[in-house]
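Why does this matter for the project? Reviewers at the last site visit asked to see concrete outputs rather than summary tables. In response, this paragraph embeds two records directly. Each consists of the residue sequence and, immediately after it, the corresponding structure tokens. Nothing has been edited or filtered.
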Amino acid sequence: MLNIYPLYIDPGTGSALFSILIGAAATLYFVFRALIIKIKFGFFGKKDLSKDGFTWKYVIYCEGKQYWNVFKSILEEFENNQTELRYLTSSCDDPVFETTWKYIKPEYIGEGNKAFAYLNFLSAEIVLMTTPGLNVYQLKRSKTVRHYSHVLHSPADTTTYRLFSLDYFDSVLLTGDYQIADIRFLEKLRNLPEKKLFTAGCSYLDEYSRKINQIPHESDHQFTVLVSPSWGLSALLSRYGEKLLDPLSNSGMRIIIRPHPQSKKSEKEMLEKLEIKYKEYNNIFWDYERENIYSLVKADIMISDFSGIIYDYMFLCDKPVLYIKNDFDSTPYDADDIDHELWQFKVLKEAGIELKENDFNNITGIIKNASDSVSLSNARKTARETAWQNQGEAGKQIYKFMTEIIENA
């Protein structure tokens, strides 16, 4: 007799299959949607298309509302210049929906595979995004997009992106000229065509600079330490965790812990464990707010690793930073192909104060004695001028770049 057993699929495999099915369904939906658009334009003409037959001229894709401060000043330039732009977002509560702009046309396109399926069949002359990894993972180059541009959202080294993250863009908008050399090095190493590189500045630092000036000072300020690391196995919380937080929690100082946004997704279990351990301490606060500037303003000193937030703090607040020099594992990053020390690590040696693991038990004394010298202040100023060019002008510079790309096509 034939025995029939029920089919068993383990949770991991089931989750993967479900993800594949959802992705396939989303892809079919947007293929069908693209076909309908083409048929519609075939019957009713191309009066809504750009001059060369693309559906849209200018497009910005925002993968999450945390990037609103990157795009806000750019959108304002398009609006002020009465230039229509399509703003595609993966946040249903993106702040763009609260605006009354006439020339910015926002649309929520879903998250994850659904968003990528939409973008993979996009038709536009130029698409600007902060999302890395074009043509590496799920996000593919659409055959009906002329130009893809990546705008950096950190003044740190571009090689701290994951491998191949910028390789297949047509242009990269930089925060400082110093970032050019490493991109050109990787292009030659990987036999890639040269991208257009344009130093625009740092739009989110411009926006934060304006906002910080409007934040009132605390009337009952308590000396505050901001612990704000990167994420991953080489990062501060993953590597040291309780070894650092135990002495800090007993210091009597106010401690704000601001994990990297990606930690909440990739290291959820680790964070939950730490939150439970320190929940009874009334001087420990966890910050998961979208914007970091409120914690930056409160802090008298920062403890970090190789996170880009160090430069936010140095450049915007001009205060001391304690950094933990880890054995940075460059394997998953473009930095693994670079044959020299990263700029940001050089800057830390000059503008920061190194904190070693054997110093943790004396952390209170080290923090209180971490004086802000003239040399540290000068080093921060030099770093700011190097990595944050065109201060206050990034939105205008990026608008100029995007429009000139189309005009000169």
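We now turn to the second protein, recorded in exactly the same manner.
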Amino acid sequence: MTPRERVMTAFAHEEPDRVPRWCGASPEFIAKAKQYLGIDDTEQLSVRFGDDFRRVYARYVGPEPDLAADAMMQTVFGIDRRGLGYGQPMAHPLADATVDEIDAYPWPDPGWWDVSGIRDAALAWGGQYAILGGDWSPFWHDAIDLLGMETLMLRMCDAPEIVDALLDHIVSYYHEASRRILDAAADAIDIFFIGNDFGSQTGPLVGPRLFERFLLPHLARLIDLGHSYRLKVQLHCCGGVEPLLSMMIGAGLDGIHAVQPGCRGMDLAHLKSTYGDRILFNGAIDSQAALIEGTPDLVRERTREVISIMAPGGGYVAGASHDYILEETPVENVLAVFDAVAEFGTYPALGRG
């Protein structure tokens, strides 16, 4: 099978020739791994890890951000951020806003993204890989940036019209940005990939009732967009989100990444037996206790255990339990993961269903 055929077979909840592999990694880890392996080209690194996916992006052509003096970046919604990694918001400009003030906010223009090169970029892979595309669409995170976490939670209870107006503006922007991407290149893309972290280590950040009321309709709107172009839709979603999975599946979600087995409610055997015939699981190999803190031998054994639980019957992609493999992760441990997938993830050895 080609990597693309392998991935799409897994999404169909059938067993491909072997378990597909996913390697999302930070730029810092990629640079470190290339140096460790003596590889100059990032594509060579993807091939060494056996990554079955490739991703294409629109190109930002909008106005240059007017950054605050001590800001490190600015989101498309005008939020300056500073601090470690992507940083934290320096202000919450709509914390005290009325609905009229939310409507009057300078919302971004989806036309700020140039989609003209996406189709050619996807076709350049020659149909070999499963292609990810579409805007990341982190509408939950943007709502937190604009209102502040505590204020957002309070407004769900005491001023729901504020939250409704805010989310409608945010998701309308993302919906249109991705519609433009998919209009230009959907025939060369396989998976509409979006991301929102609805969970924490101890469970969902909002309970099922509030999730269904405020967030699920907007998630469903994006899922429906992807399906209208005959694409699979995969959500990156960290944390203990098991109480929300049935609703996500009911909204049509095809795959969830990157399953974190160390979070409350995310027992792998339970997830597989309860939901495994209805949603593809991507990830589940512990990024912290195994990949960062473990040895290659421990990583190899943990990978074998995860595959034995998650792979039978299809519907599983092997990868780390985090969006990015971080710079502090030993390269030898990452090699151990993907070599173990190759060793233990061949389906005749796994048995059937």
